[in-house]
Structures
1.
Amino acid sequence: MTAQRGGWLDAVRRPDLPPAGEYALRLADDALVLAQRTAEWVSAAPEMEEDVALANIALDLLGQARSLLTRAGELEGRGRDEDALASHRTEREFVNCQLVELPNGDFARTMARLLVFAAYQVELYSRLTGSADEVLAAVAAKAVKEVRYHRDHATQWVVRLGDGTAQSAARMQAGLDAVWPHADELFEADELTDALVRTGVAVDPSSLLAPWSAYVGTVVEQATLVRPDVTALPGGGRRGIHTEALAPLLAELQHIARSHPGARW
Amino acid sequence: MSAPTVEEVRAVVATVPDPEIPVLTIADLGVLRDVRVGPDAHVEVDITPTYSGCPAMDAIRDDVHGRLRDAGWDDADVRLVLAPAWTTDDMSADGRRKLEAYGIAPPAPAGSPGPVPLGMPSLSVPEGLRCPRCGSTQTRELAHFGSTPCKALWSCRACGEPFDSFKVLR
């Protein structure tokens, strides 16, 4: 990714918030976009308990996103609140990782993505509790308890489906193979995180790779699946580069607020 | 009007019920964190969410404001505080008793092991909570997630009924 700095991609988007605000926005957008994706399962999950579980997980993520968006707006200091940031930014202004915007696919792929992302969030939030930014530390201390439940839920399903029938194992493996190339982006450090690590605000994303890898490796092994050996995709979500899946998601997410200016959730 | 005391304000707001579990007050739950009264009679009430996305917080905030207005204390702020993060250990013993009488298995008290191991989670189904309907411990978890973020769904093999369990969070 470093080689592309200064090229055309940089012209697409430069951070327009102060560094700590931009960092809060990255964490917020990850949670917001995955909340929206996850909520698509409600009424369509394989069983009613799963409708409830996925609705709860989406709600936790939405709650985290609200606190983080509010903090990003405060740090920006230009009067944008959680609603303005959620509903009145364009696709290129979103800085979530591409992993969370990918279409759900089947249930196995959804659980593969949740395993990858929740395992990352557990490592992230458990360290962010020591952030020099008191609000980020408080949000993390609250959220880490929630994402442990998410990780646990994904783990149970990945093992059950992976160590299940030939059909369920094949689909679970396909799910892992589909999301794995998008995992590397979670662990990419850049100039922004480097600077914020020095001031104690941010967690170095690259430091999360080893503990994340150990956890998901154990799950994949217990599920009798094969850890995907795939080339990472280039990513770019932190700079506003997204897949074609994000814009339709945002159109749905933002529709009410944009159609009815001033509406609040 | 003279400034109320902290105790007077606390007595008024402590009885606000939780909108999802109306048998519990926000004081029982530990959602009511702090009450302060300034020298100018300005009232501040701190509340904390059980879960980040808890949809009841807006209703609780409105209810607290309403109680304060009814008592004649219009100059009031209700603040949402996140730190320190709420845990089920903040729930009062009285709250646990009321919860069980209402048909929801209360969270295990402080000092008992938490539900979520730090490492690899157990793949076995949690068992053995006391059924709030018949008292049997022949019970098992049906789903980690229940009708609200703070609850899990269990079932009792003795009386055959499902029941909610307030999840341990700490």
2.
Amino acid sequence: MAKTVLEFEKPIHDLEQKIVEMEIMSSDSNVDMKKEIKKLRKKLVEQSKKINKNLSRWQRVQLARHADRPHSLDLIELMCDSWVELHGDRLFGDDKAIVGGIARIDDQRMVLIGQQKGRTTKDNLYRNFGMPYPEGYRKALRLMKLAEKYDLPVVTLVDTIGAYPGIEAEERGQAEAIARNLFEMSRLQVPILVIVIGEGASGGALGIGVGDRLIMLENTWYSVISPEGCASILYRDADQKKKAAEAMRVTAEDLLEMGLADRIIAEPLGGAHRNYKETALTLKRVILEELKELIIIPVADRLEQRITKIENMGVWEG
Amino acid sequence: MSWFRRKDKNIQTASSEKKDIKEGLWVKCPSCRQILYKAELMQSNNVCYKCGYHFRIPASNYIEILLDTEGRQGYFQDIKPCDPLKFKAQKKYSDQLSAAQQKTGKNDAVQVIQGQINGRPVVLAVMDFSFIGGSMGSAVGELLARAADLSREKKYPLIIISASGGARMMEGAYSLMQMAKTSAKLSQLDHEKIPYISLMTDPTTGGVTASFAMLGDINMAEPGALIGFAGPRVIKQTIGADLPEGFQRAEFLLEKGFLDMIVARDDLKSKITEILEILHVQA
Ligand SMILES: [Zn+2]
């Protein structure tokens, strides 16, 4: 059950509370409230659908970074029949904001890489709020090379507000690490499936985001900069983030329309944070479906398709 | 590197004017504070003849510095930027584009020229910081992609001169994807073993640094150039402390292992020639 309630989630939350209360009442007394509860459940579904339909772009952003939203490891644990986490970039250290390892879902073996946020303050400090250092990108690349060696497809889960902007990150070549990944991912011999599960901000997200297919969960966003970042630069006022989110068109639906995302995965009613299990099951089904398609394409064709897909990104004249 | 600290509060200029060379006969060097005679400065490739400070120069100057006069040919001049998101913040993106086009006389922030360096054919792509901060939108990405393709097709080495504040926010996710596009094109060039030399000038930051600028077989930079992923202001805000002196300057990057060399403007042509003579055996 959700612990953090956003303003626009209140009607859903209130209905849920009411249903719980009624269930307790009906089990404690002889009063039969089944009919009432059924009615409320129906109302809950309708209400959730209505709210979901009318969400603004900024509200989608809020859902994408909801305090209770499932993160990479939550989903990995629920999806995978086998998951062996691997650590370190073999160069400097082990970044905690990017996790990776070898995994199996049903019969499908793969390398899984995900950006990892924390939930508690302590956890968030450990994960650096999901903002990778260069060694995170280099760990990811090492694991992708491992995937290439063993002919395993790569699945990446994108969820970051950006690569960490700090002194050490610059000293160790944040820009070079991201650039290298873009370069190598564009020609990695094995399939790469990219899935945005939360936030996708700037080169920090793209650093594990080049692949054959880009898929986004329904309540996620992906753009060149966060709405706050855009607002503080172009509006000179971070409070204009709502406007910035609208202007940059950052939602999954936007990216599908822009021809950048290939598919949107519907979330459980009210958002992924209301039902981890259902989210993970849907994600699992989509991953298996997509990989099945990608794997059978001959390598040369797949790489050509990947390059063509990347080449076509953008809008220009002439 | 004293020129990054301005002690005299009386010489306050708008940030856009700070390092450009403005109208008038005289200009003050921001580094050594020497008053320089502009005509003389021009003759020294806009490098301070007292202290070596490299003033920012437009793309056309690099073309003059690097390419032989004979056999220059501009490419892809019909490629123009669009406003796919109908973007409007404080200004309309479409207005910004027209203003920049009027100011620079160019369609966007990069020019592609095929030419020769001491008789050796090359494909040269030069960014212009004065066009919306040299930011990378779809047209810039496409121009660089075509430059890489041209280089691959002709088997001529590719040289990209960067000057950019990063991605062009006004094109949203499209601008982000230009990082992937330019990098993918360079991986194709890499596969064909055609040399790519990246020259980073002041400033080269954000998505440009985190894509094609850092991917040279040879990475070089001009002295004192600001080069980084995150901008100094963002880093300062994040860590809540002052940044060390010289941080994110070319000399810093050389020390940290991300540049092969720092090359003064006057030596650029001869250095590139020397490199290409060894790396690129002409057919
Ligand atoms: Zn000087």
3.
Amino acid sequence: MILKEDKLSKLLQKYPQERRHTLAVFQDIQHECGFLPKEHIIEAARYLKTPLAQAYAMVTFYRSFSLLPRGKYVIKVCDGTACHIKNVQGRLDCLKRVLGLDPGETDKDGLFTVETVSCLGACAISPVMQINEEYYGNLTEEKIYEILADLYRKEMRKL
Amino acid sequence: MKKTILVCCGPGCIAYGGLDVAASFREKIASLNVNATVETVIKQSGCHGFCSRGPLVRIMPDDISYYRVKPKDTEEILHSLDKDPVERLLFHNVGGGSVKSQRETPFYASQMKLALRNVGEIDPGSISDYKARGGYEALRKALTMEPEDIIAEIEKSGLRGRGGAGFPTGLKWRIAAGYDNFPKYVIMNGDEGDPGAFMDRALMEGDPHGILEGIIICALAIGATEGYLYIRDEYTLSLESMKEALADAEKGGFLGESILGSGRSLRLNVVRGGGAFVCGESSAMIESIEGSVGEPRAILAYPTEQGLWDKPTVINNVETFINVPLIIRDGSAKFAATGTKTSKGTKVFSLAGKVRNSGLVEAPMGMTMRKIIFDIGGGVVGNRKFKAVQTGGPSGGALPESLLDLPIDFDTLVRYGSMMGSGGMIVMDDWTCMVAVAKYNIEFLAKESCGACVPCREGLRALSILLTRICDGEGEVRDLEIIRSICELLRQTSRCGLGKTAANPVLSTLKYFPEEYEEHIREKHCRAGVCGMGRNTEVKDDVDLADIAAMARAARKATFGETREKGPDGSVGGKKENGTHNNKSTNSTGAES
Ligand SMILES: Cc1cc2nc3c(=O)[nH]c(=O)nc-3n(C[C@H](O)[C@H](O)[C@H](O)COP(=O)(O)O)c2cc1C
Ligand code: SF4
Ligand code: SF4
Ligand code: FES
Ligand code: FES
């Protein structure tokens, strides 16, 4: 999703035109759009008086940014140590079977994105995944099916 | 009669439905008017610690704790407030019998809560809750003290940085205070990048004012007038909690222009981290706040001399700051009475992995790992055998059973090739392959290496290739020598702590579990059954599925049945029946359990 011009400038104008706000501005754009559209990076760099190369260096350095559009539901599967030793691969295989997605991929309808992350900070209930803002702990294969089934049902009702 | 119902709304309990439980309490109180004689207050608190039994509910002042509470239980709890507790929701001892208070459970009994003093006890969004427990008294006291005396008090307490390195906090403040170069800055390190660590978020979400009070006192001591709270962007709750606390503290006069009328000012800003592990390192964090990529600086001067915008800067960890008000308020002697000779006070550990009771544990420095894992943690889950505990995050080490009686503090574990680090403790059982664990940690560090210096960038890549070969059954004996020499290179020549300590997970597993490397290389055998070796492998899991399996199967059929044709590769929902022990490498469908 690309922001309308006035919405983008409103977002930018919350910040003084200084390079140190690059990270914050990009985070805001990503929160709004789900990823960082090229047009917005260029516009933001201009506004923040930051060389474009520097802006792209930021975008590619910080792991939370995505240059590609992501799905409506971003599924972050934790692969931190506590989760990893409880067979995260099994859960990823399970998502792959249902959604056909490997980590880093988005389906062509733009509904789901699967990602792995390094720790969601809820290790006591590992294995954990997060879908948008919601956490799901003690994941089993069955639980993943249930969760996905719920989301599919929710989407189908809207049709 | 007045009762407070504290509903845990930490991340673990929220995932288990804690917010629904809190909502249900509110709704029931409003609609039922259940108990006219009892005035009841519902509070959403931070993490109570025992996350694996969430959602937790605690009734005060009776100190009754309930575990695994569901919304359907709330009515019964409300009706019981002036009667006997609800037996089935209490903690039940293994040998039978139930207990009311947390303190009587093995999980809490030997803990000591200093840093966590308010976490789970108050509504973190309420500054008056904080003040009611002595909050901001230390700040008032600090305002009557000379900066020099504040620093002396922190020095005498023996407080050392909780972020991992254990640098003496008082000394750090003294160095920064010594420069006449203004403005000076104070930074809170809330990046919490170690996988398996979640104590800092529990503090930020459970007692934000406790941290702020520590930061303000630090600013007074070193003469800082501006500061930054660097918090991971993924920690949405922590960000909200700290921002709200900032606003309330400012309203209360504890922050901003002329703190409590003293004429001293401090402005604090929140900066959201970008999900780069290396930004937890002080100089990388400074780069990040300045608006650059977070590459650690080649050390010419420490941040205490030339930090943010080249001004004197103190960076401390969240947990370090939250200890400060205690020391100022109650005196350094009291703080120093707990702990070991060189490590004073307590440490918060996050206990996770294959351990029965996982959650947050605060223990005096010097407690043995055995006590934490077996007495508090209840031992290994699922009757498996303990194999190792990884302490100190990805760049810590894995320690075997024979070392469990070591006291845990800043210095002891380092001598054995690991470290206490920020307090992550991940328990591993005999279904864990130690070579695969080393490989996993190295892959994590290689991914997170900023790439600025060659030994770390290339060394970690080489290590990860070598370890992958060994795990795939293609390793050779001489690989071990190459691995050792890369480890030495990393340690000696890397620019920052990430590269310098990156060898720990490899060297410690080589030292304590050499037989596993040998078996992988010589016999092409993985005793834990984790590594593929090009053969069929069992992937095991300890989660019991029986109860929800049937329901899930039905749901799956109902929904994915119709979408099967549309399925991306036609392999939708093909799970092998019956198995906790399925097959991973022979076909893509046979995952675990
Ligand atoms: C790669 C790397 C990552 C680090 N990550 C963190 C972190 O997430 N949180 C933290 O408090 N300290 C982290 N540190 C330690 C900090 O560099 C620094 O020592 C600490 O914040 C200082 O505060 P303290 O003295 O209160 O511990 C990290 C260090 C390195 C080398
Ligand atoms: S990445 Fe480094 S070498 Fe390549 S163009 Fe940029 S500065 Fe030059
Ligand atoms: S040791 Fe690694 S993370 Fe640290 S500066 Fe060098 S390349 Fe970057
Ligand atoms: S390791 Fe998965 S939540 Fe921390
Ligand atoms: S989140 Fe509730 S006990 Fe930890």
